[in-house]
Amino acid sequence: MAPAAHSSVLIAAKRRVGLSFAQLGERLGVDEVWLASLLHGQATATPAEAEALLAALQLADGPEAPALLEALTTYPLKGALDPQVPTDPLLYRFHEILQVYGLPLKDVIQEKFGDGIMSAIDFTLTVDRQSDPKGDRVVVTMNGKFLPYRKW
Questions:
Q1: In the chain, ranges of CATH 3.30.1160.10 domains
Q2: Interval 110-138 mean pLDDT
Q3: Set 32, 96, 131, 150: catalytic member
Q4: Among 28, 66, 91, 105, which residue's Cβ finds the most Cβ atoms within 10 Å?
Q5: Is 129 tagged catalytic?
Q6: Catalytic site residue 37?
Q7: Architecture of domain 3-73
Q8: How far is residue 4's CA from residue 126's CA, in Å, rounded to a whole number?
Q9: 138 sits in which H/E element
Q10: HSE-CB of 118 using CA atoms within 13 angstroms
Q11: What's residue 11's pLDDT?
């Protein structure tokens, strides 16, 4: 089953059973953002996590269960998004943030840590809601290990 195909099946089942990413994450003992990345084909589950997910989504006994188990436990092609500028307004804003603040972030990080990068492997990402009288705010926290470039 292709990543897009298994993702659409999993996300449709999530909607059908009415569980949030946070609720599914609690059932599997994982963060909601990581769980969402799993459903979108960008993460790998253990067999136990995949089985628990399929049970929660009421897909464990369906004919597609073996293909879904395989897709969920196979190493994905990460970052395989369309390289075009996204047209979805929310995704476009993240693209815009990197266009406007990408180089400044790079400069500030390297000024504080040296020449290197923030890991996307030893990494967490959380999304929180902050109440504000002018309109609630989205708080996105990225937390990655600093990896200095080596000299040899």
A1: 89-148
A2: 96
A3: 96
A4: 28
A5: no
A6: no
A7: Orthogonal Bundle (1.10)
A8: 24
A9: strand 137-148
A10: 14
A11: 95
